[in-house]
Amino acid sequence: MIQLLPTIVRTLVAAATFSAVAVAAHAQGVTGDVQAGQKKAEMCIGCHGIPGYQNSFPEIHKVPMISGQSDKYIVAALNAYKKGDRKHPTMRGIAGSLSEQDMADLGAFYASHADRIAPDAPRSASTAAAALIEKGACASCHGANFSKPIDPSYPKIGGQHADYLFFALKAYTVEGNGMIGRSNGIMAGIAKQYTPAEMREIAKYLSTVEGELKTVPQSRFK
Hints:
Elements: H1 5-26, H2 34-40, H3 45-48, E1 54-55, E2 61-62, H4 71-83, E3 86-87, H5 89-96, H6 100-111, H7 127-136, H8 139-142, H9 162-171, E4 181-182, H10 185-191, H11 196-208
Antiparallel strand pairs: 1-2, 3-4
Helix pairs in contact: 2-6, 4-5, 4-6, 7-11, 9-11
């Protein structure tokens, strides 16, 4: 079963990429504006603009760094919250209030924070972490240094907070809960292979990788 995983992953990735292309084509006419996004980000900075800020639902973890993510990923994530594919009451309420243009503007704003340089080579993973990451074929989607996704609607995860990555991985294993969980066929299949301890090992390593993600404090929080 495990030996077949890379083939299954490639098949699912191809299907998901086709779907993402279709969504992008649907929203083709929407172009994000960085300055408009900066103004609209006022609703975001209370959590994502404070270094080290922690979320308390459904468990305590640092809110994800989103500055440096691609515009397509920001839009995809917001749409997932809006549709309920990602369950989080606060984020669903915020995303539900946004138009396609709003999402595109926010995506453009946060993508504008990306460093335009190649990240350093990742640190060597422990034998355990390397085996677990290989088992999940993580790099096949998230790319070099886990910061160059094969599709721009996929997240950069290199350097992301370890506790958030652990929470996100667990969320893909949750079923039948109206308040928490994430719906994604590819990630659910991958995450369900791991024990919580193994998820922590993966998350710990990924958080040490030098990537493009960061928190950009707004002036009132500096």
